[in-house]
Design goal:
This protein has 390 residues and is mostly helical. Helix content is 79%, strand content 0%. The chain is built from 16 helices and no strands. The two termini are 38 Å apart.
Amino acid sequence: MTQHRLPGWLIGLFVATLALGTDEFVIAGLLPELAADLQITTGTAGQLITVFALTFALGAPVMAVVLDPYPRRRVILTALAVFMLANLGAAIAPTFSSLIALRAVAGLAAAVVSSTAFAVAAQGAPSDRQGRYLSVVTAGLTVALFTGVPVGAWIGGLFGWRSTFVLIAVVALAAMIVLAAGLPQLEGAPAAGLVERLSPLRNVRVLRLVLAVTLCGAGGLMFYSYLSALLERSQGNTQALPWVLLLVGIIGVPSAFLGGRLADQYGGRRSRLIVVGGHAFALVLVGSLIALSAPFPLLLLGIAAWSVFAWALNPPLQASTIEAAPEAPMTAISLNISGLYLGTAAAAGVGGIIVDGPGALWVPFAAALALTLAWISASFRTPQPAAVTA
């Protein structure tokens, strides 16, 4: 049996997305110290998260359209350099306004790195391993949740919040070195006019997948964001939350690779319907266990099942998007990424309304409804190429 070894440049993409994920999530744990140092409120400091996320979401499709024709290697190395410099600048930013500006730059650069990383993984993969290559890129974001984020927060606690941005810049530099040494010269999209590069915006299949991604992000992140409220409802306290989050993260890494294998084995449509449907079912299961006051070990099994499907989502959906728009994959992927961030924003808002209104028990059921709608949106069939007749 032939053994397939992952190329070094794919590990570089993993390290790049690890840096992006750390930069996105770690700042939440630094807000009190950062606010005190810059003499602002914690709420004001929290706008650093908003600026990064909004710039990422809105900038991803715009930058993808602009940069799609350029060689992938040049684009991702340049974007990583900008991302690194923006984080080094944040480490020495004298004022909150300058820090806001640098977070916007970092968010825009991260949008380019993320879109390009998925496009590179798909373009550079063997034809039968595209899903698995995409899963390595996804795994970088997953690993960031339980390695990069805690380590970044720990470094910030020891040496001050500015040191965390230095750490992120160092990780980005490591990714640059690996990619500069091994990333092949992958060409951008063929020369085309703006209308052709914007074709995914007119592609109904792509738009349905973007809607599915948005709904998946809203449902999955709603549940994840309010796990503490659900544990309070189920156990009467949140003492187990750190261990539950660790469980979710640990399960997430192999689950991302599982999603890639499903995409390779069953193709885009079947794999995405399996994972999205499983995600919806797992949310109903967890909600039912909480409603029935199930023993905590049984609830943990339900959360573990949710983790499998939640983290397996990305590779099948990204593979499906590339399959639906092979003429402009980077633009199509960027739309997916924007959809995910919009879903994340909706998750926090809608979940908060549910927790403060009907109660936390309804969060997993509302999330399951979002995933069910995502399943419906993603259930279309991809037309088969017409047979060539003699």
